[in-house]
Amino acid sequence: MTSTDEKWLEKKISRRNMLKITGASAAGAAVFASGMGPVAKAFGFDIFEDDLTAANKISFYGKHQSGIVTEAPAHVYFASLNVLVQSQSELQELFKLWTPLAVRLMNGEQLEELSHGGFTPPKDTGEAKGLDAANLTLTFGAGPSLFDNNKLGLSSKRPDELKDLPHFPKDQIEEKYAGGDLCIQACADDPQVAFHAVRNLVRAASGKVSLKWTQTGFTSTPKAKNKKETPRNLFAFKDGTVNPSPKSASDMKEVVWVQPNDSKSWMVNGSYLVVRRIQMHLETWDRTSLQGQEATFGRHRDSGAPIGSKKEFDEVDLDAKDDSGNPHIPANSHMALARKVKDRIMRRGFSYSSGLIDDTGAYDAGLLFISFQKNPDQFINIQNALGRADKLNEYITHRGSGVFACFPGIQKGSYIGEKLFNIL
Amino acid sequence: MTSTDEKWLEKKISRRNMLKITGASAAGAAVFASGMGPVAKAFGFDIFEDDLTAANKISFYGKHQSGIVTEAPAHVYFASLNVLVQSQSELQELFKLWTPLAVRLMNGEQLEELSHGGFTPPKDTGEAKGLDAANLTLTFGAGPSLFDNNKLGLSSKRPDELKDLPHFPKDQIEEKYAGGDLCIQACADDPQVAFHAVRNLVRAASGKVSLKWTQTGFTSTPKAKNKKETPRNLFAFKDGTVNPSPKSASDMKEVVWVQPNDSKSWMVNGSYLVVRRIQMHLETWDRTSLQGQEATFGRHRDSGAPIGSKKEFDEVDLDAKDDSGNPHIPANSHMALARKVKDRIMRRGFSYSSGLIDDTGAYDAGLLFISFQKNPDQFINIQNALGRADKLNEYITHRGSGVFACFPGIQKGSYIGEKLFNIL
Description:
The structure is a homodimer. Chain A is globular, with a radius of gyration of 23 Å. The longest helix of chain A is centred in the first third of the chain and has 19 residues, at about 90-105. In chain A, the strands form two sheets. In chain A, strands 1, 2, 3, 4, 7, 8, 9, 10 and 11 form a nine-stranded antiparallel beta sheet that branches. In chain A, strands 5-6 form a two-stranded antiparallel ribbon. Chain A has one domain (about 50-424). By secondary structure, chain A is α+β, with helices and mostly antiparallel strands. Chain A has 13 helices and eleven strands. The model of chain A is unreliable at about 1-45 (pLDDT under 50). Chain A has helices at about 5-10, 15-20, 20-35, 35-40, 90-105, 145-150, 190-205, 250-255, 280-285, 290-295, 335-340, 375-385, 420; strands spanning about 75-85, 135-140, 180-190, 210-220, 225, 225-230, 270-280, 345, 350-355, 365-375, 395-405. At the A-B interface, helix 7, strand 4, strand 5, helix 10 and strand 9 of A face helix 7, strand 4, strand 5, helix 10 and strand 9 of B.
């Protein structure tokens, strides 16, 4: 790197990152070699590294993308986008553009420090100025329609399992909450940080993407004796009790991460995201007896224990019967039906509350269901097992839906989704 | 209180409150004397006191309602409601019903401890179980239409200044975000706690009220050196810099709290709430130069300082000129216009981000503007001064509006809004 380059960089990057120039220049060289330099530089900087000194910071780089098995923070801004690019190389440029921005956002840094009196729009929209990284995670994925786009020439790269979800009984999917060529899942401790991230990624890609649908969500984790408990959904039931443990490498391998030969090679170490915008009919639910509510889920509301048991994590015994010979856990309860299949998924559920539904005045509230699995069939099998019988169907309506192939993690010097282009 | 009564109470109330039975019984007696007992008791308990030992707890009782000059927490769930009651006494019963529920909610308590196997719906919807009070505040107010309702016989109680806000230039108020007979402003550190509060109050009043419109909002407060800074809105500008200080009794008296002879006597120590759902056209804003953005507000974006000054709280000098003789702060900037009037208000701004607008795909995002003032004219005068000239008009559209007379604070043994019925 020449001395002139260094002066240029001094102006462009924050002081915090300045400390790392020496280390970064090696990565910078790798980046230029892989052809990323010009794109990143066009945005005003070309050094982008995880700032491990930043407060409340999740790493961007790694074997897997963040936001999949990372502990879910309190807020999500989920965005589904359509692409406007006209060629595969333009799509690559988009991902190359996003990579350093995502790194900076996850560092809690502004995309550019402001200089006063600017005659151009600021490169960062600025509403997260002064806030820290807030454990921001950004998860990028590609929807089935991306592979249908003939201009992009990606049809041969499409995994067989990446297709729009089938129609399930009682689905009422609305086009305005469905599908998308790409997704960005932004999760953070602070809703302003999550929103800021998506807004700035979409804005930097102006003319290359358009927003198809978005949804905010939140989750509130009770803490008892400093131990985090399983959060409750808006029906007051604990949500995520049976999740596999991110600490179990075998669970993650079995449930979440695509392994060699599971899918297209470019998806190895990636995962499939399923999103469902599920309206919960709170008014109807709130008129249901506690017994009816518990029979619907198959669990006790307060403790989260399977009906007839005491504790949330007690073994589920679907054959257990009460004194009259009736099963403790009704066969048509949500839990009993879901347990009929051996498939498992990694759930990251968020509640949403988005005002009222115009024509009915009912709460537009419910569950922004997000799950990760190495194959969308895991979700589909569970959803089919629930089928028409699920007692919960009375109280919910699925109104939004999407499935996205979330790329494997990004290595330093590479860029989001690179394997999609460079590996079969 | 008889021994039988005490046994009944032991079953009904949480252990935490049990410790206070002796103290509470005196209040209980006062309550029975004022005729509240039967209503409250019908809901299953009749002891309701601020639990000063609860974590993150704001007092319910006091000279003023909470949520007006209380430091704004990160989340709001604002609800506008219409009443379905048919008489003034039914309206009174509604407020009597809400009073003990509001106290319990603000204590972070469940409305009822669950007993398993209940054949009736649980009295608490339960999603806040395990969460603490989260600094919940509940602010109740009455809109102009409440006084137009002949069945309620309140027309003589209507303050002259309580009327629908006039049409301001460029307003595009939508009926679905306008007006309401009553409002509940629920603010909390946790969105689930705020939503839970409104949901449970509305549910307990089933058949007596219906939701007209609701809006969630959030605000993110940067902390530098452990000192809280002024939060930024979605245009990245600091919002609330010129707020009067709740610590200044004279400011509060001058700006916020209704004084004797200011309004109807029942409003003394109350305040008027103005709410505006203001869409911010982020896409247009984000194409505007920094200079243009700063000229729009009259302040520097990063520091919040008046243009030409260095620090957020520097004195504003509208006559200051640059070397070419042009005013630092443009005459049509939001700040310069707002300063033309001497009126002041107490702002509590929240950002909102509610997906996309169906027909345009633009962000349905902006500012849930809430202000408190002792007379709505303070807001009206400022808004009129902004008028057509305000440079900010290019970037915002007011889509929702409401004005509510927020009752004075509630004394133990009394109930929400009691003065409305008992004082001229």
